[in-house]
Amino acid sequence: MRRAAACLALLPILALLAGPRPAAAAAEFLDGVFTQGGFAIGRTAPGAAVRFDGRTVQVGPDGRFVIGFHRDDPTEMTLEIETTDGAASTQAVRIEPRAYDIQRIDGLPPRKVTPAEAVLQRIRAEADLVRAARTRDSAPTWFDSGWIWPVEGRITGVFGSQRVLNGQPRQPHYGIDIAAPTGTPVVAPADGVVSLRHRDMYFSGGTLMIDHGRGLASAFLHMETIEVAEGETVRQGQRIGTVGATGRATGPHLDWRVNWFGKRLDAALFVPPMGE
Ligand SMILES: [Zn+2]
Q: Is 254 exposed, middle or buried (0-12, 13-18, 19+ CB in 10 A)?
């Protein structure tokens, strides 16, 4: 007992002798949009361990890593870096807050706003599939292809709006809605691998997800047709299906979303202004 106590008492002294751990060099940011719904691509020493907002972030052999900022993330978050020599540092990541619109949509079928008990099980099962696809943390940086619009048309819904459906407050809208006639081709906005394909989800109808690497993923909702298979590699600009009005939709449009794992990002921040 005495012996153990003595050993424990020595620990702080040993820590003092070892001195403070050396500070790791700060990560630099190569690209990004530092706002709620934005993202950043950083670079640190290869082999370093990076944590952001409670998550261990994959660092590539080139030292690059990706982080994303949710709709409601705080304006100051922390990046923790520990290099292979044990040097550790924390770094504040500051993002701009955003103001979101309120969007009212009326005339939806009541069962699509407040689903019957009987379909809740189906809705939960579908949500589980989507959630599982969002956990993928693929090493390839397919997003290096850059980004283009998957379809062009009038923007009828934007990221983050607070939704009031048939007068009832619902989840915010995380996608960008692009109106286009049913059958309009949809192309892959960036390179990736198809991580989910579902013909008919209750809310989102024909649903497709593409893994762009490192937790970045696109989702495409309400599609009329899906022309790629799960596991298939897609290239930016490749046709992946067509616009539809399947699921909970008042008219034909593509609802395009980008996620970084569970965080919802603003897809519009990845692409140049439409028409360029
Ligand atoms: Zn939408």
A: buried
Within-domain flag for 36: yes
Amino acid occupying residue 162: Q
Number of CB atoms found within 10 A of residue 140's CB: 15
Q: Residue 90's beta-bridge partner residues?
A: 80
Q: Give how many domains the chain has, as a whole number.
A: 2
Distance 273 CA to ligand 1 centre (A): 19
pLDDT digits (tens, 9 = 90+) for 22-52: 666 789 999 999 999 999 999 999 999 999 9
| Residue-number span of the structural domain to which 165 is assigned | 102-269
189 CA distance to ligand 1 middle (Å):
17
Question: 19 by DSSP, 3-state: which?
Answer: coil
Please give the model's pTM, rounded to 2 decimal places: 0.88
* 5, part of any domain: no
